[in-house]
Amino acid sequence: MDRRAFGLSAVASLAVSGCSSPNYVSRFKTYNGPEVTSVVVNKGARKVYLLNGADVLREFKMDLGFAPQGPKQVEGDGKTPEGLYRIDRRNPNSAYHLSIGISYPNGEDRARAKKLGKRPGGEIFIHGEPNDAKARKRAARVSDWTAGCIAVRNEEIEEIYAMVTDGTPIALRS
Predict the structure, then answer these.
(1) Is 80 exceeded by the pLDDT of residue 94?
(2) Can you give the CATH number for the domain in which 81 is found?
(3) Does residue 7 have a pLDDT over 80?
């Protein structure tokens, strides 16, 4: 590429970058601290803990499913699972601010639901607030408003999304 072409492309790049909003803040944060080696969800305390070994790196308040007592048994029961799982996916285009998936249901969950003649459900995530304004207002009025997921504030899911990698173990306890 000759100098003239390089100069024109550099000027065009700067002009385009100048068109972005100066107040825009990306929801995709970066994290350069200690590795998150596990996530612990304490349903009774309504807390999510990000751990490096035995050290708590961060803790967050959370909301749960609309019927939070006890482990998730079947689809639609409004309960948040209990047990050992893994973070297995992330969804930047969720109906919520951001979301990271939990590997529910496992084999035990499927077998338990099958004995009851039901489906175990699925699509359990840690996520932010609803993107839909009406749903966001409803969620702000009540605690434990999800269908079984773990909900945190938008700023908090941005941190969690940056800090926790796929494959990280997650323990959900009552």
Answers:
(1) yes
(2) 2.40.440.10
(3) no
